[in-house]
């Protein structure tokens, strides 16, 4: 997508829209650590809820003497909040206790326990004071909820997320043209842009094929057969997804968006492709086309958010005119198929 097109679209933002984009950008990136620590907080609450009865000396044959405690937080392995970590001496009851290498965390002991001895059990590198009970609770279910939110946003809500993540409208459109489509539709609803037919003229000679590429592996090729769409995932070759033969097309037109005060059409903000099939309603149900049906104000056709440079629009206009003329002659029997 041409940089000048992105710049022109971005210039149509009001100051309030630019500030809104900046605010969304800040909120998005601050929400990531927020969601992360929220998940840790809920999981820590789950651990506290599963604490059962305290161990007895008969069960563990080990004790800990609490020497001192320090508070930590408000952000830690336990999420949001403040907790206590304590230094203890550890050993067999009645024997000599030695300083334990790891401080107890998650408020297993508190300052109220300083100077007291408690039965503990060593599990891995840490000391535990309480039995863990196997009970189901809502905290267990909610512990995965913040991470589920992130997964949902990153997949099903990807298109909306892009605008929040990058802040810049131009960069958002470059990474995902669907962002540009939504912005153009907003401007048209508000009367800030108008769609008008666009005729850039013709090259002296039509190219055999003209190909448009955009992000996410999508491309459209205008050629002898008609209009073909390809998609290629990472590390995979292009895969054909749909084709519209020239005989299936009523017409292919170029449309440009202008400011209402640009009466002479000298300064197009963006240029797009309009496709009308035979019958027209077919594009509204065909899987590869229906998402473009009625887009950006088009009536009875599919409008693609391939925002074109003038040079690319000129090449498409020339090639489409040439193949449309050839197809018309075929239909009249003047050219052999």
Automatic annotation (TrEMBL):
It comes from the Bacteria. Keywords: Membrane, Transmembrane, Transmembrane helix. Pfam families: DUF6346. The chain crosses the membrane at residues 22-42, 136-155. The keyword Transmembrane helix applies. This is Uncharacterized protein. The lineage of its organism: Bacteria, Bacillati, Actinomycetota, Actinomycetes, Pseudonocardiales.
């Amino acid at each position: 997508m041409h940089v000048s097109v992105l710049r022109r679209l971005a210039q149509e933002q009001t100051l309030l829209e630019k500030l809104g984009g900046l605010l969304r950008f800040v909120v998005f990136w601050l929400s990531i650590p927020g969601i992360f620590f929220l998940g840790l907080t809920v999981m820590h609450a789950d651990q506290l809820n599963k604490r059962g009865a305290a161990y007895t000396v008969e069960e563990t044959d080990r004790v800990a003497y609490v020497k001192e405690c320090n508070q930590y937080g408000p952000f830690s392995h336990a999420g949001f909040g403040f907790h206590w970590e304590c230094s203890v001496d550890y050993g067999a009851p009645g024997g000599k206790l030695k300083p334990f290498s790891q401080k107890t965390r998650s408020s297993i002991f508190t300052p109220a326990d300083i100077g007291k001895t408690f039965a503990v059990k060593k599990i891995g590198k840490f000391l535990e004071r309480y039995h863990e009970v196997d009970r189901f609770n809502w905290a267990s279910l909610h512990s995965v909820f913040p991470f589920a939110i992130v997964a949902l946003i990153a997949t099903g809500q990807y298109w909306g997320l892009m605008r929040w993540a990058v802040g810049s409208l131009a960069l958002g459109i470059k990474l995902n043209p669907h962002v540009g489509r939504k912005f153009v539709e907003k401007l048209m609803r508000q009367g800030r842009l108008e769609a008008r037919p666009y005729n850039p003229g013709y090259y002296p000679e039509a190219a055999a094929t003209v190909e448009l590429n955009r992000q996410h592996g999508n491309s459209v090729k205008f050629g002898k057969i008609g209009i073909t769409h390809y998609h290629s995932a990472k590390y995979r070759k292009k895969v054909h997804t749909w084709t519209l033969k020239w005989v299936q097309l009523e017409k292919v037109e170029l449309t440009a968006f202008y400011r209402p005060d640009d009466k002479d059409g000298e300064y197009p903000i963006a240029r797009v492709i309009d496709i009308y099939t035979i019958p027209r309603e077919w594009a509204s149900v065909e899987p590869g086309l229906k998402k473009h049906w009625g887009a950006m104000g088009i009536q009875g056709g599919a409008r693609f958010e391939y925002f074109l440079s003038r040079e690319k629009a000129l090449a498409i206009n020339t090639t489409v005119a040439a193949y449309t003329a050839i197809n018309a002659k075929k239909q009249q029997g003047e050219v052999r198929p």
